[in-house]
Amino acid sequence: MPTADDRRDITVIRRVRDRIDRDFAQPLNVDELARGAHMSAGFLSREFRRIYGESPYSYLMTRRIERAMTLLRRGDLSVTEICFSVGFSSLGTFSTRFSELVGMSPSAYRADPSRSVEGIPPCLAKQFTRPVRNREAAATASP
Predict the structure, then answer these.
(1) Model's pTM, two decimal places?
(2) Which residues, at least 6 apart from 61, have a Cβ–Cβ distance to it below 8 Å?
(3) Is there a contact between 107 and 79 (Cβ–Cβ < 8 Å)?
(4) H or E element: which one contains 129?
(5) What is the dihedral of CA 50, 56, 60, 62, to 10 degrees?
(6) Tens digit of pLDDT for each residue in 115-129?
């Protein structure tokens, strides 16, 4: 049974996740998130990983890449514009992270017509388009 302190920590960590969801395009780092939650960076990272299964930084990168995927499918912005609009400060870092999470470059993703979510209900499209890290994809694909 969770203690009152456990429930308080979970609530605080949920607020951190909500802040990442809301402000993903802003410059965020674990130290800043920890200060806002009145926790040490180490404690925040450990608790976030315990509750959500990934580090705050990894969650932030996933949110940024999810948004980039949506913008790439929409097709009205350049890859560079998308890079900066989702919070990256370097096109190289964006392309590297995108390729790590999605398994292809942003340009290749944009050019792939099978990535369209037209006609798919939004609740399913979000699950369908969530980036999966290459290590996770390899683990689920093995027999």
Answers:
(1) 0.77
(2) 97, 101
(3) yes
(4) helix 122-129
(5) -30
(6) 656 656 666 666 556
